[in-house]
Amino acid sequence: MERTSFFSSNYHGAHLVTCGLLFFSVCFLITFSGLGITAGAHRLWAHKCYKAKAPMRIFLAICNLTAFQNSIYEWVRDHRVHHKFVDTDADPHNSARGFFFSHMGWLMVKKHPDVKRKGKLIDMSDLENDPIVMFQHKYYLYLMPIFTFILPAMVPVYFCGTDIWYAFYMYSITRWTLVLHGTWCVNSVAHMIGCKPYDRFISATQNVWVSFFVLGEGWHNYHHAFPWDYKASEFPYYVNITTLLIDVCARIGWAYDLKTVKQDVIDKRAQRTGNGSHSSINMTRSTENNNCGSIMTNKIESGKTEVFSTSPIPETEEAKKTYTADSKSQNKSDYKLEIVWVNAIFFLIVNAISLRGTYDLVFFRLPWTSTAYMWSLFYINGISITAGAHRLWAHKCYKAKLPLKIFLLVCNLTAFQNSIYDWVRDHRVHHRFVDTNADPHNSTRGFFFSHMGWLMVKKHPEVKQKGQIVDMSDLRSDPLVMFQHKYYFYLMPIFTFLLPALIPVYFFGTDFWYAFRLYSLTRWTLVLHGTWCVNSVAHMFGYKPYDKFISSTQSIWVSFFVLGEGWHNYHHAFPWDYKASEFPYYVNFTTAFIDLCAKIGLAYDLKTVKQDVINLRAQRTGNGSHASVPPSGTSESNGIWGWDDEALTKEDREMASISYQQKS
Ligand SMILES: [Zn+2]
Ligand SMILES: [Zn+2]
Ligand SMILES: [Zn+2]
Ligand SMILES: [Zn+2]
User: Fold this and answer.
1) Ion ligand 3, residues whose Cβ is below 5 A away
2) Tens digit of each residue's pLDDT (9 = 90 or more) over 580-608
3) Dihedral over Cα of 629, 632, 638, 642: its sign
4) Which of helix, strand or coil describes residue 404?
5) Which domain holds residue 586?
6) What residues does the ion ligand 2 have nearby, CB within 5 Å?
7) How far is the CA of 558 from the centre of ligand 3 (A)?
8) Are residues 255 and 357 in the same domain?
């Protein structure tokens, strides 16, 4: 066979067959290493989802050696700690510390002391009694280099005459790196992006892409809810090669005692702790549940947290009654996504036009005068939304004298985010029914929907229905707000699009179309994206020190670009605080502005929350990252690492069904 050299130019002439073979062999090796992790270290040893005979254990231990992700013993300890103390400081790849940390950053820094401390609490006796695991652990640093780096390269060199450096580059280094990134995606992507049908109180999600690349380990919300299920998913073969392998091995007698969870147990769990997207929950029931969400929150407020206890709630007569009542009204709210094409095309065009201006602005290609003018417009727009529509009118965090009100109201006209009245109604509904169908930019419907998609489709009927429940009498009795609302579509075009362009035309002789494109369209679009980021980014990425049961997070970037509105976990916990954050001036321009107005007498009755109330709330409902939470006070009994965890109750064991059972 022809020698293919990575460095010689005739490699570029490599024909399709060579490429195909190369792709196939890399994929094969990836799967081989991958199974050593998924079927071996993960499902067999870490979670004890099934048992395996010696030949299979040896096979998996060898596969595992080709992956260089530490010895099985160490991998399992890290992973059990991850499950048991998920999202706390003791979690080795704590996803609350951000995407990069949970992906690969955790391997580049010293471990948090909690990881080691809690790691010692984990029972590892089962692995210590497995001679294959202990042999692999003892000779790991001799065996691993051979299996991870030397053999995968030597096989093609020996059998196909491949160039050794090329083989080493492709089959050892690249293949190893790809498998690593795949595994890491479970800790990063599958702890951040995706839905949570089984347990909305943990960060793990269902992610089909991760499942595809990591042989079925992306059904991670299910997996954290039922870590002892050998399928690591509710469905056996839906994007799940690992389950297939285990089943084949069970057929030939190598694997046995395969543990799964009974369907009704899964359904009940999903109905109790899921986010409502599980198929066992019908549409109406799910929203009614979420409706109870606000009642639940009230209960938390009064200090009763038993709603979230992990013991199964028995089906009561009353619950059944509500259920039937719900199914009657079910047909009414059959929701269908309907795109409003006018809006979608309009946003597309305006965004396309704004690209050029954004580029010029970001890369300092504008004269300093226009940059300064742009930024003053940003601040005027921004402050009118944040200090005006948001903190003053929507949340009544403070009161304002007439001059300040008029100022904010006029500035608000330059932002075209609908009249203050409409904005406030949408926003109050958002807070009241957050993460349900009634939430106008419901973040559980995905990033794009909560960012801008919600303005391109017809509103969910619940948004309107619940919108009517929200009390708007304070705004209706405010003549200024109602004036702005009434004449909005006459005033807004003047203030948003005409004036910002005409001022530089008149004073500096700027070309009108240039000014219109830059100061009207581009500036408006950028402010919009900033505001939208609060609904998308600040409902997806970041810590939840104050309330881990809601989607909103603390995001410093959003705060930076949206003048202090990114401390959104705090804001949803205490929406009436005029600072919209625990700390007054930490990346919070709006608070500085309101304080300044208060100094000169224009703002008054500024509401904040007392420190001890904040601390208590953070300790009660936060994710443990708040400064007032003692390091070990978070969740000692939060997770279960798998089968045989001492926290697994007798009831839990009885709920599992075991196939291919053998007497051992
Ligand atoms: Zn796991
Ligand atoms: Zn996880
Ligand atoms: Zn929000
Ligand atoms: Zn708000």
Assistant:
1) 552
2) 998 888 889 999 999 999 999 999 999 88
3) positive
4) helix
5) 346-617
6) 204
7) 12
8) no
